[in-house]
């Protein structure tokens, strides 16, 4: 797929890949074998009928293709951009055995973009009103999915969102150059057109309690995400110039600090930035730092390239943009000056030892390998835990020892009757599509609960086990 | 939503807005705050809820114009509305009948102190409030603090009103007089809170401070509001805003509060240069 040249794009926040033209999309669609037993559908956490939509693209019915995807996935322009297709549908595609797999993600993106850009978005028929009301906490991908599904089933749905904008991580975390905010807005608009109401600035647990919602609604879904940044717990972490990735990205994305002073929220102007961590969030932070004008940006990761959890495509993009990978390196202290500003970091070299619980080889420090590096900004991007606000203020809601809400795999039901949960708050920081998959399961179960339909026998085991996170 | 029903100028750069916000007015408790974003390009800033009227559905915000965001908010008039008001945030003050409580407030810190003093008095405490400002003209909420307290003592740095000196000087004289104090609250500029804590620590007098660091989301998601308390990192927006003042690392807090000084100056200059209030 054509994309912006690295030397140009590292100075702007515009989207990196340009997307397919109709001709290119049809050419790619031609490559699909339209398998009788399509492996790709099995690989998709929300079971999109992939060959069916690809056939529609091949036949030139692009908006038909978009509608086909939307039968299973309400946010296709987003998923087409941020899903890890290379480990889901594309990895199992049979054409991948001898050649590159069909570019399912790019085709999904193309269909959704075509429909949106040509104003062809249609609102599907909704079931007659049921008179039942559902409240959703959090307007991230999990919450938006539940909301859309329940609205289509004829329920009255209200989302309560803590921030002043919808989308969750899609809006505050993932940068503009990877997921333009206009696209998130447009997909949220679609959910709103289904009749969903969104109340912003409503922090549940403070503004209202879950128990208050249960007074007014027939069921409640909790999709509050994994919004609690972890720090390294090393000396110097509270110096000026040390950010959590959440803060760095929120300032830049949600608050538009990259357009300071036109927008009032500031962000530190850095020369040398170190990003700690090896996931997608680290790549997004590093690439943001580059675009904010830093001279040198390095990603510091304690294992080797092979263990990096980030998508290969994102690592590739980062390296193309000039970001340095400092692998097998672990920071142990951040140095600062007397005014409290970061001046450097002390690191240790690591080597890989025996595999640990996650199956990845454990990094062990090489004795006497300490060395110093000079940096003025450090972005800590080593993961997120569960935000405790809702569990703390909701009696009867059980969590595990990390604070994740416990929810049934097949129904998303929590320990509290009428309350369901899904997405990052349940499985820990994962992916957009897994959050959406959980949302679909929850919506179906909430529908049954509100309508008094008995739960089916647990024969659906297989279906939902897919939504579990591979750890 | 968030309509400004009343605006008052309390002192030169100190403004008060009464904002329509029924749900927050209903559930907020002493010690909690809101985050506001004035307009589409605005930043999110924390402001204490200085008072609330559940029946009228209003909350009272009091702030000092120190940078662009507060100056912009100060331009808002009755009938305007604030784009976003989020809250109530933070943990409420722990209120019970402690006995005699001293509530010290300095400058704009008197605003967050007011609801706490009020709640303490309602809970049966003997509330001795000590409020202070640089000079008489900058002293706010005198009348309301009098109502909220059993006894009100006042100091000004220049001696233009009340005791010539700092709020800590008054506290020292109370202690010297043998006043039996069970608990202290100290809210105000960081140096004032630090000074109050240095004093009370000498007498092993438990002191609660309310912190007002830089914030973004206010829900524990970003960590912008970190402070060190008792050697551990805390997020003020969810773990606070109140902490044991004897454990807070004020030196670090001062440094962190200066993280964006150059940008804040740039923003403010630009705002003034472009005509100030015309740009709201
Ligand atoms: C920088 C970054 C990059 C990522 N890149 C990718 C990627 O490329 N591909 C991918 O698949 N995944 C990616 N992820 C992960 C993905 O974004 C998340 O797994 C997904 O967004 C989880 O969805 P969610 O709905 O569970 O939660 P979230 O998206 O976190 O949404 C939760 C929402 O709930 C709101 N909320 C929280 N608490 C409350 C409350 N008390 N009251 C009301 N509202 C509340 C929050 O404000 C938020 O809007 C990335 C994550 C980050 C941080
Ligand atoms: S597995 Fe590949 S070739 Fe087969 S239907 Fe799916 S996309 Fe087409
Ligand atoms: S302001 Fe973001 S965590 Fe406190």
If you had to describe this structure to a student in words, what would you say it looks like?
- The complex is a heterodimer of chains A (471) and B (280).
- Chain A is an alpha/beta fold and 471 residues long.
- Helix content of chain A is 34%, strand content 16%.
- Chain A contains 19 helices and 16 strands.
- Chain A has helices spanning 6-9, 22-29, 39-43, 50-58, 62-70, 76-82, 89-92, 104-117, 141-152, 169-172, 181-193, 210-216, 245-252, 280-291, 312-320, 389-392, 424-427, 432-451, 461-465, and strands at 133-137, 156-160, 197-199, 219-222, 228-229, 242-244, 272-276, 296-300, 324-326, 329-336, 342-355, 361-365, 371-374, 377-380, 384-385, 419-421.
- In chain A, the strands form four sheets. In chain A, strands 3-2-1-4-16 form a five-stranded parallel sheet, with helices on both faces.
- The two termini of chain A are 31 Å apart.
- Residues 461-471 of chain A have low confidence and may be disordered.
- Chain B is α/β, with parallel strands linked by helices.
- In chain B, helix 2 (68-74) packs parallel to helix 9 and helix 3 (110-122) packs parallel to helix 4 (142-148).
- Chain B has nine helices and 15 strands.
- Chain B has helices spanning 22-27, 68-74, 110-122, 142-148, 167-176, 190-202, 236-239, 250-257, 261-273, and strands at 4-11, 14-20, 33-37, 45-53, 58-64, 84-89, 100-106, 126-133, 151-156, 163-164, 183-187, 207-210, 226-229, 232-235, 242-244.
- Chain B has a seven-stranded mixed sheet, with helices on both faces. In chain B, strands 1-2-5-4-3-6 form a six-stranded antiparallel sheet. A two-stranded antiparallel ribbon of chain B has the order 13-14.
- Chain B has two domains: 4-91, Translation factors (Elongation Factor Tu (Ef-tu), domain 3); 100-210, Nucleotide-binding domain of ferredoxin-NADP reductase (FNR) module (Rossmann fold), CATH 3.40.50.80.
- The two termini of chain B are 17 Å apart.
- The radius of gyration of chain B is 18 Å and the shape is globular.
- The relative contact order of chain B is 0.14.
- The chains are: A alpha/beta (471), B alpha/beta (280).
- The interface between A and B is large, with 39 and 44 residues.
- The complex binds flavin-adenine dinucleotide, iron/sulfur cluster and FE2/S2 (inorganic) cluster.
- Residues 82-83, 137-143, 160-163, 168-169, 173-174, 202-205, 223-225, 227, 249, 280-281, 284, 387, 389-390, 423-425, 429-433, 435 of chain A line the site of flavin-adenine dinucleotide.
